[in-house]
Amino acid sequence: MTIAFLLIAFPLLVIFAAVNDIMTMTIPNRIPMALVISFALFAPTVGLPAMTIGLHATTAMLVLAVTFGFFACGWIGGGDAKLAAAAALWFGPTLPLLDFALLTSLIGAALTLTLLAARRLPLPVFAETWTWARRLHAISAGVPYGVALAAAALIVYPDSALWKATMGL
């Protein structure tokens, strides 16, 4: 049950966040909250010591402070800030967190450039009735950065301490 929880909870929640961000340009608070609760339930069951769990929580709070600064500057949305912090909770103060940050930046840049290029082209006729496609295509729209956060999280997740503890690595 524990391994199934690990294999499913984190990936499904970050994918759900990305899909929500694409469809609505928002990440509901319940998704980062579910990531936090899942971590709180899961980390002790795989034997993470209390000190390590505390370091993971401290890391998440630092990431939240930095990303809320980005939010205050208008660079990312509030949901993106909360999702980044919730993902950081799962990675803790380890190399995978740095990989997560770097990959998020690179994927986010590629996503931004792709959207900017796509917005110069007319929206395909078949997509004109899709509210989410019209919203994404609007020149004034932002970038659903939750997609970059989720993609980076999924790539880095197998290198996380929680994954390795569960797999006995």
What characteristics describe this protein?
Prepilin_IV_endopep_pep; Prepilin peptidase CpaA; aspartic-type endopeptidase activity; 169 residues; Preflagellin_Peptidase; mainly alpha
Element layout with pairings:
Blueprint lengths: L1 H23 L5 H16 L4 H23 L5 H14 L3 H24 L12 H7 L8 H11 L4 H7 L2
Helix pairs in contact: 1-2, 1-7, 1-8, 2-4, 3-4, 5-7
Explain this structure to me?
This protein has helices at 2-24, 30-45, 50-72, 78-91, 95-118, 131-137, 146-156, 161-167. It is mainly α and 169 residues long. The chain has one domain (2-167). Helix 3 (50-72) packs antiparallel against helix 4. The chain is elongated, with a radius of gyration of 17 Å.
CA(first)-CA(last) distance: 18 Å
The percentage of residues in β strands lies in: under 5%
Topology order in helix (H) and strand (E) letters: HHHHHHHH
Tally the helices: what do you get? 8
How many DSSP E strands?
0
Structural class computed from helices and strand pairing: mainly alpha
| Overall geometry | elongated
Helix content: over 70%
Residue ranges: pLDDT <50 for 5 or more in a row? none
**Radius of gyration computed on alpha carbons:** 17 Å
Mean pLDDT: 92
**In this structure, how is the largest beta sheet organized?**
none
Domains counted in the coordinates: how many?
1
